[in-house]
Hints:
The complex is a heterodimer. By secondary structure, chain A is α/β, with parallel strands linked by helices. The two termini of chain A are 31 Å apart. Chain A is built from eleven helices and 14 strands. Chain A has two domains: 3-222, Rossmann fold, CATH 3.40.50; 224-298, Alpha-Beta Plaits (2-Layer Sandwich). Chain A has helices spanning 41-48, 70-76, 92-102, 107-120, 136-148, 166-181, 193-199, 217-223, 236-245, 264-276, 291-298; strands at residues 3-12, 15-25, 30-34, 56-61, 64-65, 77-80, 154-158, 185-190, 202-207, 210-215, 228-232, 250-252, 255-259, 283-287. In chain A, β4 and β5 form a beta hairpin. By secondary structure, chain B is mainly alpha-helical. Chain B has one domain (2-255). The longest helix of chain B is centred in the N-terminal third of the chain and has 30 residues, at 59-88. Chain B is elongated. The mean pLDDT of chain B is 86. Classes of the chains: A alpha/beta, B mainly alpha. The A-B interface holds A 12, 46, 49-53, 71-72, 74-75, 77-79, 81-87, 89-90, 94, 98-99, 101-104, 130, 146 and B 1-4, 8, 11-12, 15-16, 18-19, 22-23, 26-27, 89-91, 93-100, 255-257.
Amino acid sequence: MIVEATRLRKSYGSTEVLAGVDLGVREGSVLALLGPNGAGKTTTVRILTTLTKPDGGRARIAGYDVLREPAQVRGVISLTGQYAAVDENQTGRENLVMIGRLMHLGRPTARRRTCELLERFGLSDAMDRRVKTYSGGMRRRLDLAMSLIARPRVIFLDEPTTGLDPASRSTMWDAIAELVRDGTTILLTTQYLEEADRLADHIVLLDHGRIVATGTADSLKAQVGGERIDLRFADEPQLLKATGVLRAAAANGLVLSVPSDGSAGHLHQVLDVLRDNGVEPERVSSHRPTLDDVFLTLTA
Amino acid sequence: MSHQGVGAALTDAATMIDRSVRLARRNLDTLFAAILLPLLMMALFVYVFGGAINTGTEYVNYVVPGILLLTTGYGAASTAMAVTDDMTSGMIDRLRSLPIHSFAVLTGHVTASIARNAASTAIVILASLAMGFRPTASAGEWLAAIGLLLLYVVALSWLAAGLGVIAKTVESASTLSFFMLFLPYLSSAFVPPETMPSWLRPVSEHQPITPTVEAVRSFLIGTPMGNAGWIALAWCCGLLLFSVVLATSLYRRRTGR
């Protein structure tokens, strides 16, 4: 485990933010900390990146203790916070070279890495413009590039796409996915199940400073029932008939929910079976589990 | 790890100073405050108010030391705002998650502040010579005056950094810095304290600006020194010590949560 935390606790005044969190991230894997605002995601990241001291518990990054060897920890990690941490009045290139120098890359190496990263994140054209002229998506990409300049072993991404428009979010996801292919270890926090689903090997669900579930995206979805098709019928007899035909279905009012893999083929199959038995649903909707579902189920 | 070496520490400091200087240079407000405003103030005092103020000498000779201290006040306010900007944006977290000395952020701003103030002080001195300032100082007296001004600038820069750490917003940093701009007016910088009402005179006499101005004035144009030099030195050293402790301990507290 390249990231290892045991029983992390943290309170601010009388508010308990972390109530004993255990984490482990395998080298080269992606862990998503999923949870709503106030779940303790950012505090966990701040402790692991040496910015905040825990009240209790221990954490090690690449074998270094975050409390006793913070300088060594900082040498192997990088942090991309919730708000793009870039200097508005420096250009993209200047921002990158600055961080490279502070990571103790030599000047030539810092410059070379800067060019590589600007290219890779589609910022080459804007590299000599001041960052204050950049769009939100460009800032985030620059922010991520700044985190990568010294090839950190562990990257912490705190809500990397919060506040981005769908197109920029998708670009960020591609950039993160590429890091994963390079074998970088990533710990990211997110409020979006979709994001965790798409990027993470392993998901830890956090609520009120406690871990409420861990597992892969699939296993979490399985816990909340996975994807389903909701069929609404005009009346009770139709519903009853359909319930008889479709096994493993659950009724709620006049709506019948059928577990599904989300494919068109399965939807066809369900509708065909119903038609063969002379039942026609009034409305059909497919339902993917959302963070809300996962939460309502797992924190109930 | 070699990251902790002296060489690395110097590179960190150089990089942070480079950053602070570049940011300051590109901030028009800061440039205006650091260079143009002091020049305007000097012109105002020399050409507009000066004629009505009787100081026993040519007014431009009397007022230049005060303008020099006023200049550093403006520079310090910009420093406080720059520090607050870092402390309240995501930048502080990024910088603190890097393997650099934890106070590098502060030392970068303070050093940039000193450099900026040295530059604006030099510009103000040149401009004052053009406006008729005629110092009588020897080389040694110039060195003494510059040394004292520099010490005052260093102390004020650290104080500004401390205020920058305290302030929760850039606006409040600017407000907190107000007294640094106001104190020179309550000193002997622009008018002799004897002309002030009796209740105000103690305020003027027991604050760092008056002895510092008196000492610089004595070095440059040969007015009587009295104890002003030593009192100024004590004030500046005390202020420096206080400010460094204030800035670093508050910084540690603000960032250690």
